[in-house]
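re: that complex we talked abt at group meeting.

here r the seqs, copy pasted straight from the sheet so there may be weird spacing, ignore it
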Amino acid sequence: MKSFPVLRIILCGFGVVGQSLSKLLLSRAEDLYARYGLKPRIVGVYDSKGSAVDSSGLDLNQLLQVKKKNGTIKKYRTEKSNVKVIDMISSLDADVLIEATSSNYKDAEPGMSHITEAMKGGLSVITVNKGPLALAFPSLTELATYNHVMLRFSGTVGGGTPILDYAKNSLQGERITSFDGILNGTTNYILTNMTNGMTFESALADARKKGYVEADESLDIDALDAAAKLVILANWIMGMKVTMPDINRTGIRDVTTEDIKHATEKKCAVKLIASCNRELVVGPREISVNDPLCVNGTLNAITFNSEHSGQQTIIGKGAGGMETASSILRDLLDIRQGMLNH
Ligand SMILES: NC(=O)c1ccc[n+]([C@@H]2O[C@H](COP(=O)([O-])OP(=O)(O)OC[C@H]3O[C@@H](n4cnc5c(N)ncnc54)[C@H](OP(=O)(O)O)[C@@H]3O)[C@@H](O)[C@H]2O)c1
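got the structure back, here u go
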C-alpha cells in the first residue's frame, strides 16, 4: 500500500495565512513526520507580484526572509519567477493546491480559477478563501466529485475553531434543524465597544487601528464575510444548494447607540447574527446577555439546534494567521488520509 509521506503543495497567496502556514510547517516538520509520517513540501508559491518554484521543495526559511525584505517572493532564487498558477499546475508534479489569496465576492478571482484549474488537473484543494465557495459552492463540490479529488475548507468558518468539523463529524447521525452564529469577529468587536459606550464611528476607527478590519471594510461592516460563511455552513452542514444571492443580508452600519441602549435596558445585546432557520438571514439582532451565543470582543460563537441532542454552542477565536494555518494542517492530514484510503 502507498504511504504518501511527501505531499507536494502549490501555495497561492503568501500573506498573513500563507506565511503563518510556512512557519507552522517549519516548526512542526519533525513532529508531522514522527506522528503522521507526513512530509509536506511546498513546490510552488504565488503572490500578487510573482512566483517561486522548485520542484524539489522550496526553502521556507529563505522564502519568509525574501518576502519580509522585498514584499514579494519574486526575488527568491528560483528556477523561474513569473510562472502562473495555471502553468504550475500543469508543469509541477503536485498533489494539493492551497488557495489563500484575498476573498472577493464579485467574481471570486483569482481564487476561482486557481481552484477549478487545480481540480481539473487532478489536484485536491484546500481553500481559506471564501469568495469561490460563497459564489459557487454547489458547482465546486460537484467539480471535485467529478474529478475524484478532495475539496476542503475548514479555515473558512471559525478560523482555527473546528466549527465545520464539529457539525459534520461530531454530530454525525444527528439531524441539525437550525443554527445561529456570530461569525464575524470584527463586527462583534465593534458592537461590543458600542455596548461599552462608543459610537459606531469611534468603534470602527478603533477596530481599524487594531488591524481587525479588512482592507475593504464593506466585507465586514456590510456583512459580506458573515454571509459567505453562512453560505458555506448551509451547503456543507444542511445540504442546501445556495450561494450569496440567497442570503437576506443587512450589515451593522445603521445600528445606533439608541438601539444598543434599548437592548441593554432589556438585559440584551445587539449582535450580528447569521441564522439558518427556514430562511438564511444575516443581520443585527437582540439576544439575551445570558444566551451562550452572547460572546464579546472578536470571539465567534455558533449554536446548533439538533433533533435529539438539543442545543450546543461552540465558542472560539474566529480568525488569526496561525489559527487558520492550523486548520489548513488539519485539512492536509485529512486529504492525506483520503489518499491512503484510496
Ligand atoms: N487572516 C485570517 O485570519 C483569515 C482567516 C480565515 C480566512 N482568511 C482568508 O484567507 C485568505 C488570505 O488571508 P490573509 O489574511 O493571508 O490575506 P493577505 O495577508 O491580504 O494575503 C493575501 C495574499 O494574496 C495575494 N493576492 C492578492 N490578490 C492577488 C492576485 N490578484 N493575484 C495573486 N495573488 C494575490 C497577496 O499578494 P501580495 O502578498 O503580493 O499582496 C497576498 O500574498 C483571504 O481570502 C481571507 O479572507 C483569512
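couple things i noticed - Residues 16-36 form the longest helix (21 residues). The longest strand covers residues 268-277.
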